[in-house]
Amino acid sequence: MPEKYVIIVAGGSGSRMGSTLPKQFLEVNGRPILMRTIEVFSSFDPAMAIILVLPQSNMALWKELCEEHRFLPAHQIVAGGASRFQSVRNGLEHLPDKGLVAIHDGVRPFVSTEVITQGFEVASKQGNAIVSLPLKESIREVPGPGNKSAARDRSKYRLVQTPQTFDISVIKKAYRQPESALFTDDASVVESAGDSIVLIDGNEENIKITHQADLLIAEALLKNKKSPA
Protein backbone atom coordinates (compact mmCIF):
# COMPACT_ATOMS: atom_id res chain seq x y z
CA MET A 1 0.00 0.00 0.00
CA PRO A 2 1.23 3.58 -0.67
CA GLU A 3 2.68 5.70 2.14
CA LYS A 4 0.03 6.90 4.60
CA TYR A 5 -0.41 10.36 6.17
CA VAL A 6 -3.04 12.10 8.26
CA ILE A 7 -3.97 15.78 8.47
CA ILE A 8 -5.81 16.64 11.68
CA VAL A 9 -7.62 19.96 11.47
CA ALA A 10 -8.20 21.68 14.81
CA GLY A 11 -9.43 25.21 14.28
CA GLY A 12 -12.51 25.31 16.51
CA SER A 13 -13.22 28.33 18.70
CA GLY A 14 -15.40 26.81 21.43
CA SER A 15 -18.24 29.30 20.87
CA ARG A 16 -20.94 26.61 20.47
CA MET A 17 -19.53 24.89 23.53
CA GLY A 18 -19.96 28.11 25.52
CA SER A 19 -16.26 28.02 26.39
CA THR A 20 -13.49 30.61 26.09
CA LEU A 21 -11.05 27.73 25.61
CA PRO A 22 -11.10 26.27 22.07
CA LYS A 23 -13.03 23.00 22.18
CA GLN A 24 -10.11 20.88 20.93
CA PHE A 25 -8.22 21.76 24.14
CA LEU A 26 -11.04 20.93 26.55
CA GLU A 27 -10.34 17.87 28.67
CA VAL A 28 -12.24 14.61 28.60
CA ASN A 29 -11.32 12.41 31.54
CA GLY A 30 -8.19 14.40 32.25
CA ARG A 31 -6.73 14.79 28.75
CA PRO A 32 -7.39 17.34 26.00
CA ILE A 33 -9.68 16.07 23.24
CA LEU A 34 -7.09 16.82 20.56
CA MET A 35 -4.49 14.60 22.25
CA ARG A 36 -6.93 11.72 22.29
CA THR A 37 -7.61 12.21 18.58
CA ILE A 38 -3.91 12.23 17.68
CA GLU A 39 -3.32 9.14 19.80
CA VAL A 40 -5.88 7.15 17.79
CA PHE A 41 -3.86 7.65 14.60
CA SER A 42 -0.50 7.26 16.33
CA SER A 43 -1.66 3.92 17.73
CA PHE A 44 -3.04 2.87 14.36
CA ASP A 45 0.37 3.30 12.71
CA PRO A 46 3.25 4.72 14.80
CA ALA A 47 5.26 5.31 11.62
CA MET A 48 2.56 7.41 9.93
CA ALA A 49 3.32 11.12 9.56
CA ILE A 50 0.80 13.27 11.46
CA ILE A 51 0.19 16.86 10.33
CA LEU A 52 -1.65 18.97 12.92
CA VAL A 53 -3.19 22.18 11.56
CA LEU A 54 -3.74 24.79 14.27
CA PRO A 55 -4.51 28.51 14.31
CA GLN A 56 -1.29 30.45 14.82
CA SER A 57 -2.80 31.96 17.96
CA ASN A 58 -3.21 28.49 19.55
CA MET A 59 0.29 27.15 18.96
CA ALA A 60 1.88 28.40 22.18
CA LEU A 61 -0.99 26.96 24.24
CA TRP A 62 -0.72 23.61 22.48
CA LYS A 63 3.00 23.40 23.20
CA GLU A 64 2.32 24.18 26.88
CA LEU A 65 -0.33 21.44 27.02
CA CYS A 66 2.04 18.94 25.40
CA GLU A 67 4.65 19.67 28.06
CA GLU A 68 2.08 19.55 30.88
CA HIS A 69 0.68 16.19 29.77
CA ARG A 70 4.04 14.82 28.56
CA PHE A 71 2.47 14.21 25.17
CA LEU A 72 4.92 12.19 23.10
CA PRO A 73 3.41 11.15 19.73
CA ALA A 74 5.43 12.81 16.97
CA HIS A 75 3.54 15.34 14.87
CA GLN A 76 4.24 18.35 12.68
CA ILE A 77 2.39 21.57 13.46
CA VAL A 78 1.20 23.71 10.54
CA ALA A 79 -0.47 27.13 10.75
CA GLY A 80 -4.10 27.14 9.63
CA GLY A 81 -5.87 29.68 7.48
CA ALA A 82 -8.97 31.85 7.78
CA SER A 83 -11.25 28.93 6.84
CA ARG A 84 -11.22 25.14 6.97
CA PHE A 85 -10.55 25.06 3.23
CA GLN A 86 -7.45 27.20 3.66
CA SER A 87 -6.31 25.18 6.67
CA VAL A 88 -6.53 21.87 4.80
CA ARG A 89 -4.75 23.40 1.82
CA ASN A 90 -1.94 24.55 4.11
CA GLY A 91 -1.64 21.03 5.50
CA LEU A 92 -1.52 19.50 2.01
CA GLU A 93 1.44 21.69 1.12
CA HIS A 94 3.52 19.69 3.60
CA LEU A 95 2.83 16.36 1.89
CA PRO A 96 4.58 14.73 -1.07
CA ASP A 97 2.67 14.30 -4.32
CA LYS A 98 2.17 10.56 -3.92
CA GLY A 99 0.57 8.46 -1.20
CA LEU A 100 -2.67 8.46 0.77
CA VAL A 101 -3.91 11.02 3.28
CA ALA A 102 -6.74 10.87 5.80
CA ILE A 103 -8.19 14.26 6.74
CA HIS A 104 -9.82 14.25 10.17
CA ASP A 105 -11.53 16.62 12.59
CA GLY A 106 -9.49 17.27 15.71
CA VAL A 107 -12.57 16.86 17.91
CA ARG A 108 -13.46 13.33 16.75
CA PRO A 109 -11.41 11.17 19.15
CA PHE A 110 -13.54 8.01 18.88
CA VAL A 111 -13.05 6.91 15.27
CA SER A 112 -12.32 3.19 15.22
CA THR A 113 -9.16 1.54 13.93
CA GLU A 114 -11.35 -0.55 11.61
CA VAL A 115 -12.78 2.57 9.97
CA ILE A 116 -9.33 4.13 9.51
CA THR A 117 -8.06 0.88 7.98
CA GLN A 118 -10.98 0.60 5.58
CA GLY A 119 -10.54 4.24 4.56
CA PHE A 120 -6.96 3.72 3.47
CA GLU A 121 -7.73 0.40 1.76
CA VAL A 122 -10.64 1.76 -0.27
CA ALA A 123 -8.89 5.03 -1.15
CA SER A 124 -5.87 3.11 -2.43
CA LYS A 125 -8.14 1.37 -4.95
CA GLN A 126 -10.79 3.98 -5.74
CA GLY A 127 -9.12 7.33 -5.08
CA ASN A 128 -11.15 8.32 -2.03
CA ALA A 129 -13.14 6.92 0.88
CA ILE A 130 -15.62 9.05 2.81
CA VAL A 131 -16.92 7.89 6.19
CA SER A 132 -20.69 8.07 6.51
CA LEU A 133 -23.65 6.75 8.52
CA PRO A 134 -27.31 6.13 7.67
CA LEU A 135 -29.89 8.50 9.12
CA LYS A 136 -31.96 7.31 12.08
CA GLU A 137 -34.41 10.18 12.32
CA SER A 138 -37.15 11.16 9.89
CA ILE A 139 -36.17 14.15 7.78
CA ARG A 140 -38.08 16.99 6.16
CA GLU A 141 -36.96 19.51 3.58
CA VAL A 142 -37.57 23.17 4.38
CA PRO A 143 -37.28 24.96 1.04
CA GLY A 144 -37.48 28.50 2.38
CA PRO A 145 -38.95 30.88 4.97
CA GLY A 146 -42.29 29.98 6.47
CA ASN A 147 -43.81 26.82 7.87
CA LYS A 148 -43.90 24.76 4.69
CA SER A 149 -41.88 21.54 4.62
CA ALA A 150 -41.89 18.20 2.84
CA ALA A 151 -41.07 14.67 3.97
CA ARG A 152 -38.05 13.03 2.35
CA ASP A 153 -36.90 9.42 2.08
CA ARG A 154 -34.10 9.14 4.64
CA SER A 155 -32.74 5.97 3.00
CA LYS A 156 -31.46 8.18 0.16
CA TYR A 157 -29.29 10.29 2.50
CA ARG A 158 -26.18 9.72 4.61
CA LEU A 159 -24.54 11.64 7.45
CA VAL A 160 -20.96 12.44 6.47
CA GLN A 161 -18.12 12.30 8.99
CA THR A 162 -14.35 12.17 8.98
CA PRO A 163 -11.79 10.78 8.34
CA GLN A 164 -12.08 11.40 4.62
CA THR A 165 -9.22 9.59 2.90
CA PHE A 166 -7.77 10.40 -0.51
CA ASP A 167 -5.07 9.63 -2.99
CA ILE A 168 -2.82 12.64 -2.42
CA SER A 169 -2.66 13.53 -6.12
CA VAL A 170 -6.48 13.64 -6.23
CA ILE A 171 -6.93 15.86 -3.18
CA LYS A 172 -4.08 18.21 -4.09
CA LYS A 173 -5.56 18.75 -7.55
CA ALA A 174 -8.99 19.46 -6.03
CA TYR A 175 -7.57 22.05 -3.62
CA ARG A 176 -6.14 24.08 -6.49
CA GLN A 177 -9.71 25.28 -7.12
CA PRO A 178 -10.83 28.68 -5.83
CA GLU A 179 -12.54 28.44 -2.45
CA SER A 180 -16.34 28.23 -2.53
CA ALA A 181 -19.07 28.54 0.11
CA LEU A 182 -20.39 25.20 -1.20
CA PHE A 183 -17.30 23.40 0.11
CA THR A 184 -18.54 22.03 3.43
CA ASP A 185 -15.94 19.24 3.64
CA ASP A 186 -13.11 17.68 1.65
CA ALA A 187 -15.47 15.38 -0.27
CA SER A 188 -17.36 18.38 -1.64
CA VAL A 189 -14.07 19.89 -2.82
CA VAL A 190 -13.06 16.68 -4.61
CA GLU A 191 -16.53 16.24 -6.10
CA SER A 192 -16.43 19.80 -7.46
CA ALA A 193 -13.17 18.91 -9.23
CA GLY A 194 -14.99 16.15 -11.12
CA ASP A 195 -14.30 13.02 -9.07
CA SER A 196 -16.99 10.62 -7.87
CA ILE A 197 -17.28 10.13 -4.12
CA VAL A 198 -16.99 6.68 -2.54
CA LEU A 199 -18.84 6.19 0.76
CA ILE A 200 -17.81 3.73 3.46
CA ASP A 201 -19.52 2.89 6.75
CA GLY A 202 -18.33 4.63 9.90
CA ASN A 203 -18.69 3.81 13.60
CA GLU A 204 -21.46 5.53 15.54
CA GLU A 205 -19.14 6.43 18.43
CA ASN A 206 -17.22 8.73 16.07
CA ILE A 207 -19.03 11.83 17.33
CA LYS A 208 -17.86 15.39 16.73
CA ILE A 209 -17.53 17.04 20.14
CA THR A 210 -19.16 20.42 19.61
CA HIS A 211 -21.66 21.07 22.41
CA GLN A 212 -21.71 20.56 26.17
CA ALA A 213 -23.88 17.45 25.78
CA ASP A 214 -21.19 15.92 23.57
CA LEU A 215 -18.71 16.12 26.45
CA LEU A 216 -21.05 13.99 28.57
CA ILE A 217 -21.31 11.43 25.76
CA ALA A 218 -17.51 11.44 25.39
CA GLU A 219 -17.02 10.77 29.10
CA ALA A 220 -19.50 7.88 28.90
CA LEU A 221 -17.72 6.41 25.85
CA LEU A 222 -14.37 6.53 27.65
CA LYS A 223 -15.87 4.96 30.75
CA ASN A 224 -17.33 2.15 28.66
CA LYS A 225 -13.96 1.55 27.00
CA LYS A 226 -12.35 1.04 30.39
CA SER A 227 -15.08 -1.29 31.65
CA PRO A 228 -14.28 -5.02 31.57
CA ALA A 229 -15.95 -7.01 28.81
Automatic annotation (TrEMBL):
Marked site positions, Positions MEP for the nucleophilic attack: R154, K208
Keyword vocabulary terms for this entry: Isoprene biosynthesis, Nucleotidyltransferase, Transferase
Pathway entry: Isoprenoid biosynthesis; isopentenyl diphosphate biosynthesis via DXP pathway; isopentenyl diphosphate from 1-deoxy-D-xylulose 5-phosphate: step 2/6
A molecular function GO annotation: 2-C-methyl-D-erythritol 4-phosphate cytidylyltransferase activity
Aminoacyl-tRNA synthetase in keyword set: no
Site positions per UniProt: Transition state stabilizer: R16, K23
A Pfam family annotated for this UniProt entry: IspD
Coiled-coil region(s): none
Catalytic activity: 2-C-methyl-D-erythritol 4-phosphate + CTP + H(+) = 4-CDP-2-C-methyl-D-erythritol + diphosphate
UniProt-listed Enzyme Commission number(s): 2.7.7.60
Summary of the function given for this chain in its UniProt record: Catalyzes the formation of 4-diphosphocytidyl-2-C-methyl-D-erythritol from CTP and 2-C-methyl-D-erythritol 4-phosphate (MEP).
Family: Belongs to the IspD/TarI cytidylyltransferase family. IspD subfamily.
Record protein name field: 2-C-methyl-D-erythritol 4-phosphate cytidylyltransferase
